[in-house]
Amino acid sequence: MAPGPVEQNERDWTDTAPPKKLPKGVVLGPDGKPCRTCTDVASWFAMTKGSKSKSAAPPVLPSDCPPDVETLGRSSWTLLHSITAQYPEKPSPDLQAETRTFMSTFAKLYPCWWCGKDFQAWMKMDGNAPRVSSRDEFGRWMCEAHNAVNVKLGKKEFDCNKWEERWRTGWKDGRCDP
């Protein structure tokens, strides 16, 4: 059985110094304390309750707890890809400018500060500025951005030629059709 949620009275990392040796996966915030949003739930549990678990199953928090970095990432990519799927085929120059501003602001406000700074840096690299002159261009750019993160995390890359099937029209085999 996976450990239960961390109770507030068990340990509040905002009021105490972090442990000297942190488990792998724990990210410190700018304040030098463990960042709950930037740390996956398994690493958080290892830090707060010790790494011994009675089960091989990864710990799971109830759905009404603050999201860990993995939940936040999945939700964020779903939102961003869904935005690209509904983006106009021929956006106005104003919308294009607003979209570039949105992507910059999104990265600056991203709850995992480490991820946000990394995404900001990626967008500043040659060829990585948001491409927003059409739906297809924006969708492919978003897929490339997501793949850049997947590579860093050791995950499989997605075929960007299929971005529209995945996020807009549904798969050609019909499994997404009602």
From TrEMBL:
EC annotation from Swiss-Prot or TrEMBL: 1.8.3.2
Chief localisation class: mitochondrion
Keywords of this entry: Disulfide bond, FAD, Flavoprotein, Mitochondrion, Oxidoreductase
Pfam families reported for this sequence: Evr1_Alr (PF04777)
Compartment(s) of residence: Mitochondrion intermembrane space
Molecular function terms, GO-annotated: flavin adenine dinucleotide binding; flavin-dependent sulfhydryl oxidase activity
Keyword DNA damage among record annotations: no
Catalysis: reaction(s): 2 R'C(R)SH + O2 = R'C(R)S-S(R)CR' + H2O2
InterPro entries, alphabetized: ALR/ERV, ERV/ALR_sulphydryl_oxid_sf, ERV/ALR_sulphydryl_oxidase
Cofactor: FAD
Region span, Disordered: 1-29
Domain ERV/ALR sulfhydryl oxidase, residue spans: 65-167
Protein name: Sulfhydryl oxidase
Source organism: Trematosphaeria pertusa
